[in-house]
Amino acid sequence: MKPIIIAIVGDSGSGKTYMAEFLRNQLNVPTIVSYTTRPKRPGETDGVGHYFINASQLPDKQDMLAYTSFGGYEYFALHEQVPCKGICCYVIDESGLEMLYYNHCERYDIVSVLIICPQDVLILRGIDSNRLKRDKGRKHLGEKFFDCIIRNDVSKEEFEYKILCEFNRL
Description:
Layout: E1 4-10, H1 16-27, E2 31-32, E3 34-36, E4 50-52, E5 64-70, E6 73-78, E7 87-91, H2 94-104, E8 109-116, H3 119-124, H4 129-136, E9 148-151, H5 156-169
Parallel strand pairs: 1-7, 1-8, 2-7, 3-4, 8-9
Antiparallel strand pairs: 3-6, 5-6
């Protein structure tokens, strides 16, 4: 049986990281932590949301599970981060998901999850207009590309319930 990667996609503030943390904390599903060349934001810790590296530390592309460049910075994960057996999740953008799917679907079972959150809710969550504008410029694969779509304009408890329902469906 191939390792399963739950690839989670969505706009800034939509709940991608929350879903990954929920799966890790409630169901012991490990999360792949991306590497990035972008600087740490206030409050971030190396190795928690990302591993922060210099551009000179980029590995060979053949070692990469997925790769994307966004906002002038590079983001990637490595094959060695995927558990040999079982299931894991990975917060990724749509360009990286497309690379993952088309280059590695023979090696991994990939379950693509799109989290949708209306813009007015994102604004209420404190996502600034620059990030919202930036997200509009990202690649969008269309809903038909995804195995699962979760709308997150509800309470945390309702969102968790939706996650569990979808996870049990897998």
